[in-house]
TrEMBL record:
The gene is lysS. It comes from Iodidimonas nitroreducens. PROSITE patterns: AA_TRNA_LIGASE_I. This is Lysine--tRNA ligase. It is found in: Cytoplasm. A motif ('KMSKS' region) lies at residues 327-331. Gene3D superfamilies: HUPs.
Amino acid sequence: MEKRPRALYMPLSREPSIPQPRTNVHQFMTSSNLTPIPADLRRLAQGSNAWPFQEAQALIKRIETGGSKKGEVLFETGYGPSGLPHMGTFGEVVRTSMVRHAFSLLSDLPTRLICFSDDMDGLRKVPTNIPNQEAMAAHLGKPLTKVPDPFGSHESFAHHNNARLCAFLDQFGFDYEFLSATDCYRSGIFDETLLKILRNYDKVISVILPTLGEERRKSYCPFLPISPKSGVVLQTPLIAMDAEAGTVTFHDEEGEAFTVPVTGGHVKCQWKVDWAMRWDALDVDYEMAGKDLIESVKLSSAIRRILGSRPPEGFNYELFLDEKGEKISKSKGNGLTIEDWLSYASPESLSLYMYHAPKKAKKLFFDVIPKTVDEYYSFIVKFHEETPEAQLKNPAWHVHLGQVPHFDMPVSFSLLLNLVSASHARDKAALWGFVSRYQKGVSAASHPELDRLMGYALTYYRDFVAPTKSFRAPTEMERAAMEDLLIRLISYQIIAMPKQSRLRFMNPAKANLLIVCAIGSKHFMKPCSDKARGRALAASSRFMALKTARP
């Protein structure tokens, strides 16, 4: 296992080339703008009810009761390299990193995070989004590290996707170690635990068999041999085993019996047994999983106990829903991809979305982006005004792993979206023309974070709002009201000149609002109440000031 920046550890071949991180992605997990940490931070963290601290406290109890004796704490996340990294991959790594950092405040034990790739799994089906599908079909059933790379850039399909995983994690600045299942099986890292499974064969299958159908029970074996002839991962019944010799015997595709050791990469384990085996062999202390894997966690935990060790701490997070409240499905294409989010908002905002209520099902679609972005900056501003105790509960502390930057954001993301929509701005220069007149001294050089936000706002409007935006011809009443409003707004300075005019002493935003209310009452016979006027003023005064500040 090797740490970044040498992201891949694949001694089976040359190290694949890793794409460089995108330069426009904020390294929010390793911000250099450090926030001072008070000396009594550990005491405050012990009393925090933020969920990463609660998870860390549970992990500490596990260790204190004999759950780990190796002198360090190992966190783990998993990845299936039959597909590319996705929203779930990011969510699991970022949440685990939050728990890991919370733990580091509560304990002096060193920690490591392993991102484990199940790249010895057999290729079940050919993905529809890759080239050379016919050639790939000839390798169905083979370990992913033995399936040729359809893109032609790496030794195998697994090598290609593992490289994409590491580049994906590197661009966010995650601190992790990559580990390959193929390497662990072949190098002997798993050998001792595989032999333990063989010695406890009857106990292990007694956990699994009750969960299977009648036909599957007849053929189930926790070991999947690699065919000496075809190289395919075989699902075939066990003929015989020799626990003392450490071997198992199966029939190959042609019905011939063959005997192989369970060590050295000649077999791999079935999924639930494989998970327990990995936990035991690596001595994993913490791993979270999705709600859809609750039963798998229970079974794998039971198997790890059979092997003589305690299962890791962790929790089951809820899955994402689409805008209709339905489960997101790759085949339906009804979800929001991580590429979608990063086109319209920052990775920090995505990290915030992952932080909020991980055990609660949440809708993940385009409309949640603006709200989450504004929440992110709101938490940033609030953080620097809070007591240290309150800071530990602030999501910004967990998003930035305690290194919360300072941002001066005179304009919100929602306001920028409204401004783009109202002004039909097509570039940052137009937006800066409005903003610089509204806030003197504010520029792209002085406020680079706001400049970045403008880019997201323009993209979001262009791709998501503009295509669905439609207009209709005004009614006669509406036309008369707008013409009247235009005359009144143009004449504002003249109207405000007389000393007796109350508009003379108002700021332009409030004066314009009063004019709008007066025109509305006149033409639509609907009085504008003080309460409604107050709400409208609070919500729109900044926007109107921007809108009237012609560049």
